[in-house]
Design goal:
Layout lengths: L1 H6 L21 E2 L9 E2 L1 H15 L4 E11 L2 H8 L4 E5 L7 H6 L3 E4 L9 H12 L32 E2 L2 E2 L9 H19 L1 H5 L2
Parallel strand pairs: 3-4, 3-5
Antiparallel strand pairs: 1-2, 6-7
């Protein structure tokens, strides 16, 4: 999907190495004030990288920092970001970012889950994939995204394809009935059931 979107001219991707904007021998991290293990991303290289990219491109993108401390990424957030003309994803590493990066760059902080990864590159790929596929024209079927999990707050209903019976397991008769209203009712009931079983936290949301 990402390649197709680029080939269609619907999106462009540009990569920038923060080390190229460092003042001191491509150094982008240092020991944290107050002590503690690990290293912290320095503010200067990131500020300089962001400002240089904005000046060269002549744009002011929505800036996103990928960090475990960020707000939970979701389908609704992906939809909101898909409406933005420009996005800049800033990938952290080590023990995280100097707090002044958050304070001074007007960034949106995003976390893809309650766990820690080695860097922000994988979360950035997750965000890009989730966002790009929501851009109009990327998916072949305009209704594809509307039928997927989380679009309406529920997990997607169970799906079946041929053969009609496999090792004693049969496709529900209603799905082969051709009765569209009954099929929609079945799909909604089983979407709610699957959500209640696998993600009860979604059902409890107001």
């Amino acid at each position: 999907m990402l390649r197709i979107a680029r080939e269609k001219g619907l999106v462009q991707y540009h990569l920038f190495n923060i080390r190229d904007y460092a003042n001191n021998r491509r150094c982008v991290d240092d020991r944290p004030y107050g002590g503690g293990p690990g290293m912290v991303m320095k503010p200067e290289p990131i500020f300089q990288a962001v400002e240089a990219v904005e000046a060269e491109a002549g744009i002011r993108p929505k800036k996103i920092v990928l960090t475990p401390q960020g707000s939970q990424f979701s389908q609704s957030v992906a939809g909101m970001l898909a409406a933005e003309p420009y996005l800049m994803l800033i990938c952290g590493h080590y023990e995280g970012f100097d707090e002044r990066i958050r304070m001074g760059l007007d960034v949106m902080e995003i976390s893809i889950g309650d766990y820690v990864l080695s860097g922000g590159e994988i979360p950035a790929m997750v965000v890009i994939d989730a966002v790009v596929r929501l851009i109009p024209g990327v998916l072949g079927d305009v209704d594809s995204a509307k039928n997927e999990s989380f679009f309406n707050g529920l997990l997607e209903h169970p799906q079946y394809t041929r053969p009609a019976e496999f090792r004693g397991m049969k496709v529900p008769d209603v799905l082969m009935s051709g009765h569209h209203q009954k099929i929609k009712e079945w799909q909604k009931i089983h979407a709610i059931k699957k959500t209640a079983e696998n993600r009860p936290d979604l059902v409890k949301k107001p």
